[in-house]
C-alpha cells in the first residue's frame, strides 16, 4: 500500500508537542514592525495551543 503524504502547508504551520497538543504561531508577527509596539511584538512572539475543535483535523493533515 502507498503511504499517505503529510500536508505541506500544515507541516510548515503546526507542530505537535510531546503530550500531543497542537501548537501554532500567532498572526501578525512577520513584517511591518515599525508601527507595532514592542509590547505587541513580544506578545506575538509566543506560540499558542490550537483550538480544540481544529486539532483533530490538523493532526490528520500531519499524519498523527
UniProtKB/TrEMBL annotation:
Keywords, sorted A to Z: Ribonucleoprotein, Ribosomal protein
* Name this polypeptide is given: Large ribosomal subunit protein bL35
Q: Species name for this entry?
A: Cellulomonas aerilata
A GO molecular function term, named singly, is: structural constituent of ribosome
Asked if the keyword rRNA-binding belongs to this entry, the reply reads: no
Q: Which InterPro entries match?
A: Ribosomal_bL35 (IPR001706), Ribosomal_bL35-like (IPR021137), Ribosomal_bL35_CS (IPR018265), Ribosomal_bL35_sf (IPR037229)
Q: Which Pfam families match?
A: Ribosomal_L35p (PF01632)
Q: Which SUPFAM superfamilies match?
A: L35p-like
Q: Which Gene3D superfamilies match?
A: 4.10.410.60
According to its UniProt entry, one GO biological process term is: translation
* Family statement drawn from the similarity comment of this UniProt entry: Belongs to the bacterial ribosomal protein bL35 family.
> What cellular component terms from Gene Ontology apply here?
cytosolic large ribosomal subunit
